[in-house]
Design brief:
With 233 residues, the protein is of the alpha/beta class. Helices cover 23% and strands 24% of the residues. It contains 6 helices and 12 strands.
Protein backbone atom coordinates (compact mmCIF):
# COMPACT_ATOMS: atom_id res chain seq x y z
CA UNK A 1 0.00 0.00 0.00
CA UNK A 2 1.01 3.61 -0.51
CA UNK A 3 -0.06 6.50 1.71
CA UNK A 4 -2.57 7.68 -0.89
CA UNK A 5 -6.23 7.63 0.12
CA UNK A 6 -7.28 7.11 3.68
CA UNK A 7 -8.79 9.49 6.20
CA UNK A 8 -5.84 10.71 8.30
CA UNK A 9 -5.13 14.44 8.28
CA UNK A 10 -2.31 16.82 9.10
CA UNK A 11 1.33 15.77 9.03
CA UNK A 12 0.43 12.10 8.49
CA UNK A 13 -2.37 12.72 6.01
CA UNK A 14 -3.40 9.72 3.95
CA UNK A 15 -3.70 5.99 4.53
CA UNK A 16 -1.76 6.09 7.80
CA UNK A 17 -1.92 2.65 9.45
CA UNK A 18 0.29 2.93 12.53
CA UNK A 19 -1.10 3.34 16.04
CA UNK A 20 2.27 4.72 17.14
CA UNK A 21 2.04 7.74 14.84
CA UNK A 22 0.19 10.05 17.25
CA UNK A 23 -2.75 9.88 14.83
CA UNK A 24 -6.45 9.86 15.62
CA UNK A 25 -7.20 6.27 16.67
CA UNK A 26 -10.51 6.15 14.82
CA UNK A 27 -8.77 7.33 11.66
CA UNK A 28 -6.14 4.61 11.99
CA UNK A 29 -8.80 1.94 12.47
CA UNK A 30 -10.66 3.16 9.39
CA UNK A 31 -7.47 3.23 7.34
CA UNK A 32 -6.68 -0.32 8.40
CA UNK A 33 -10.19 -1.41 7.51
CA UNK A 34 -9.89 0.20 4.07
CA UNK A 35 -6.52 -1.44 3.48
CA UNK A 36 -7.71 -4.91 4.50
CA UNK A 37 -10.88 -4.62 2.43
CA UNK A 38 -8.85 -3.79 -0.65
CA UNK A 39 -6.98 -7.08 -0.30
CA UNK A 40 -9.75 -9.41 0.89
CA UNK A 41 -13.27 -8.02 1.20
CA UNK A 42 -14.80 -9.28 4.42
CA UNK A 43 -11.46 -10.54 5.72
CA UNK A 44 -10.16 -10.04 9.26
CA UNK A 45 -6.95 -8.07 9.65
CA UNK A 46 -4.32 -9.57 11.96
CA UNK A 47 -1.18 -7.70 13.03
CA UNK A 48 1.56 -8.00 15.66
CA UNK A 49 3.30 -5.58 18.00
CA UNK A 50 6.51 -5.02 16.03
CA UNK A 51 9.77 -4.68 17.95
CA UNK A 52 12.54 -5.19 15.32
CA UNK A 53 12.91 -8.77 16.55
CA UNK A 54 13.62 -12.00 14.63
CA UNK A 55 10.39 -13.55 15.93
CA UNK A 56 7.63 -15.05 13.78
CA UNK A 57 4.25 -16.34 14.94
CA UNK A 58 1.70 -18.70 13.42
CA UNK A 59 -1.83 -17.29 13.20
CA UNK A 60 -4.65 -19.82 13.50
CA UNK A 61 -7.36 -17.41 14.57
CA UNK A 62 -7.58 -13.61 14.89
CA UNK A 63 -6.69 -11.88 18.13
CA UNK A 64 -7.66 -8.47 19.44
CA UNK A 65 -5.37 -5.47 19.07
CA UNK A 66 -4.78 -5.52 22.82
CA UNK A 67 -3.77 -9.19 22.75
CA UNK A 68 -1.47 -9.10 19.72
CA UNK A 69 1.88 -10.78 20.44
CA UNK A 70 5.26 -9.12 20.15
CA UNK A 71 6.79 -10.36 16.90
CA UNK A 72 7.91 -9.09 13.52
CA UNK A 73 6.43 -11.71 11.23
CA UNK A 74 3.26 -13.76 11.02
CA UNK A 75 2.18 -16.69 8.86
CA UNK A 76 -1.08 -18.56 8.31
CA UNK A 77 -2.82 -21.25 6.32
CA UNK A 78 -6.30 -20.01 7.29
CA UNK A 79 -8.56 -18.35 4.77
CA UNK A 80 -10.35 -15.20 5.80
CA UNK A 81 -7.32 -13.71 7.59
CA UNK A 82 -5.38 -10.73 6.25
CA UNK A 83 -1.82 -10.50 7.55
CA UNK A 84 -0.52 -6.95 7.93
CA UNK A 85 2.89 -5.38 8.60
CA UNK A 86 3.51 -1.64 9.06
CA UNK A 87 6.72 0.05 7.90
CA UNK A 88 8.22 3.48 7.42
CA UNK A 89 11.59 2.67 5.74
CA UNK A 90 12.09 -0.95 6.82
CA UNK A 91 11.41 -3.62 4.22
CA UNK A 92 8.03 -5.37 4.25
CA UNK A 93 8.30 -8.89 2.87
CA UNK A 94 5.22 -10.77 1.67
CA UNK A 95 5.54 -14.49 1.03
CA UNK A 96 3.28 -17.15 -0.45
CA UNK A 97 3.38 -20.84 -1.26
CA UNK A 98 0.29 -21.14 -3.44
CA UNK A 99 0.63 -24.90 -3.74
CA UNK A 100 0.55 -25.41 0.04
CA UNK A 101 -1.87 -22.58 0.74
CA UNK A 102 0.44 -20.77 3.17
CA UNK A 103 1.24 -17.05 3.32
CA UNK A 104 3.43 -14.86 5.49
CA UNK A 105 4.34 -11.24 6.13
CA UNK A 106 7.59 -10.01 7.70
CA UNK A 107 8.91 -6.66 8.94
CA UNK A 108 12.57 -6.67 7.93
CA UNK A 109 14.54 -3.67 9.04
CA UNK A 110 18.30 -4.09 9.10
CA UNK A 111 18.22 -5.38 12.67
CA UNK A 112 15.49 -7.94 12.06
CA UNK A 113 16.92 -9.09 8.74
CA UNK A 114 20.40 -9.44 10.23
CA UNK A 115 18.96 -11.19 13.29
CA UNK A 116 17.07 -13.83 11.31
CA UNK A 117 13.44 -12.70 10.91
CA UNK A 118 13.37 -13.95 7.32
CA UNK A 119 14.62 -17.40 8.25
CA UNK A 120 12.18 -17.55 11.17
CA UNK A 121 9.30 -16.67 8.87
CA UNK A 122 10.25 -19.41 6.44
CA UNK A 123 10.56 -21.94 9.27
CA UNK A 124 7.08 -21.00 10.50
CA UNK A 125 5.69 -21.40 6.98
CA UNK A 126 7.30 -24.83 6.75
CA UNK A 127 5.47 -25.83 9.96
CA UNK A 128 2.26 -25.31 7.99
CA UNK A 129 3.42 -27.36 5.01
CA UNK A 130 5.13 -24.80 2.79
CA UNK A 131 8.21 -25.68 0.77
CA UNK A 132 10.92 -23.06 0.44
CA UNK A 133 11.46 -23.73 -3.23
CA UNK A 134 7.76 -23.11 -3.86
CA UNK A 135 7.64 -19.80 -1.99
CA UNK A 136 7.47 -16.52 -3.87
CA UNK A 137 8.53 -13.40 -1.95
CA UNK A 138 7.88 -9.75 -2.75
CA UNK A 139 9.94 -7.01 -1.08
CA UNK A 140 7.76 -3.92 -0.71
CA UNK A 141 8.70 -0.24 -0.56
CA UNK A 142 11.65 0.53 1.70
CA UNK A 143 14.48 3.01 1.96
CA UNK A 144 16.80 2.73 -1.05
CA UNK A 145 20.59 2.56 -0.95
CA UNK A 146 20.97 6.09 -2.30
CA UNK A 147 18.93 7.40 0.65
CA UNK A 148 20.36 5.20 3.40
CA UNK A 149 23.61 6.60 4.75
CA UNK A 150 25.13 4.72 7.70
CA UNK A 151 28.36 5.06 9.65
CA UNK A 152 31.27 2.77 10.43
CA UNK A 153 29.58 1.65 13.64
CA UNK A 154 26.61 0.39 11.66
CA UNK A 155 28.89 -1.34 9.15
CA UNK A 156 30.63 -3.16 12.00
CA UNK A 157 27.43 -5.11 12.71
CA UNK A 158 27.85 -6.98 9.44
CA UNK A 159 30.27 -9.55 8.14
CA UNK A 160 32.79 -9.20 5.34
CA UNK A 161 30.55 -11.38 3.19
CA UNK A 162 27.97 -8.57 3.32
CA UNK A 163 30.33 -6.11 1.60
CA UNK A 164 28.31 -6.06 -1.68
CA UNK A 165 25.47 -4.28 0.17
CA UNK A 166 27.66 -1.38 1.29
CA UNK A 167 28.91 1.37 -0.98
CA UNK A 168 31.54 3.79 0.32
CA UNK A 169 30.31 7.33 0.83
CA UNK A 170 31.86 10.28 2.60
CA UNK A 171 34.59 9.55 5.11
CA UNK A 172 33.44 7.14 7.80
CA UNK A 173 30.13 6.51 6.09
CA UNK A 174 28.49 4.03 3.74
CA UNK A 175 25.32 3.67 1.69
CA UNK A 176 23.49 0.51 2.73
CA UNK A 177 21.36 -1.52 0.32
CA UNK A 178 18.63 -2.85 2.61
CA UNK A 179 16.50 -4.22 -0.21
CA UNK A 180 19.46 -6.02 -1.76
CA UNK A 181 20.46 -7.46 1.59
CA UNK A 182 16.95 -8.73 2.28
CA UNK A 183 16.77 -10.26 -1.21
CA UNK A 184 20.10 -11.96 -0.56
CA UNK A 185 18.88 -13.44 2.73
CA UNK A 186 15.74 -14.75 1.02
CA UNK A 187 17.71 -16.33 -1.83
CA UNK A 188 20.27 -17.90 0.52
CA UNK A 189 17.41 -19.34 2.58
CA UNK A 190 16.13 -21.19 -0.48
CA UNK A 191 13.13 -19.07 -1.52
CA UNK A 192 12.14 -20.01 -5.05
CA UNK A 193 11.35 -16.55 -6.41
CA UNK A 194 12.24 -13.12 -5.03
CA UNK A 195 10.75 -9.92 -6.47
CA UNK A 196 12.07 -6.56 -5.19
CA UNK A 197 9.70 -3.63 -5.79
CA UNK A 198 12.52 -1.04 -6.01
CA UNK A 199 10.51 1.82 -4.49
CA UNK A 200 12.23 4.34 -2.20
CA UNK A 201 10.18 5.39 0.82
CA UNK A 202 12.56 8.26 1.60
CA UNK A 203 12.58 9.85 -1.87
CA UNK A 204 8.94 9.26 -2.86
CA UNK A 205 7.23 11.56 -0.38
CA UNK A 206 3.86 11.67 -2.12
CA UNK A 207 3.63 7.89 -2.09
CA UNK A 208 5.23 6.79 1.18
CA UNK A 209 5.84 7.71 4.79
CA UNK A 210 9.48 7.70 5.93
CA UNK A 211 10.96 7.70 9.42
CA UNK A 212 14.35 8.89 8.20
CA UNK A 213 12.91 11.70 6.10
CA UNK A 214 10.87 12.94 9.05
CA UNK A 215 13.94 12.71 11.30
CA UNK A 216 16.13 14.66 8.89
CA UNK A 217 13.51 17.40 8.75
CA UNK A 218 13.14 17.52 12.51
CA UNK A 219 9.46 16.63 12.27
CA UNK A 220 7.88 15.40 15.52
CA UNK A 221 5.96 12.58 13.92
CA UNK A 222 5.87 10.17 10.99
CA UNK A 223 3.31 7.81 9.47
CA UNK A 224 3.42 4.14 8.58
CA UNK A 225 2.20 2.37 5.48
CA UNK A 226 0.86 -1.16 5.61
CA UNK A 227 1.68 -4.21 3.49
CA UNK A 228 -0.87 -7.01 3.47
CA UNK A 229 -1.35 -10.53 2.18
CA UNK A 230 -4.16 -13.10 2.40
CA UNK A 231 -5.15 -16.41 0.93
CA UNK A 232 -7.93 -16.04 -1.63
CA UNK A 233 -11.45 -16.59 -0.30
Amino acid sequence: MTRRGGVSRGMVAGLQCGFGADDDEDAVRENRRLAAESVLPGGTLVTVHQTHSPDAVVVREPWSLADRPEADALVTDRRGLVLGIVTADCAPVLLADERAGVVGAAHAGWRGAHGGVIEATLAAMEQLGAGRGNIAAAIGPCIAQASYEVDDGFRANFEEADEPYFERGREGHWQFDLEGYVAHRLACAGVGHVEPMRRDTYAEEEAFYSFRRATHRGEPNYGRQMSLIALPA
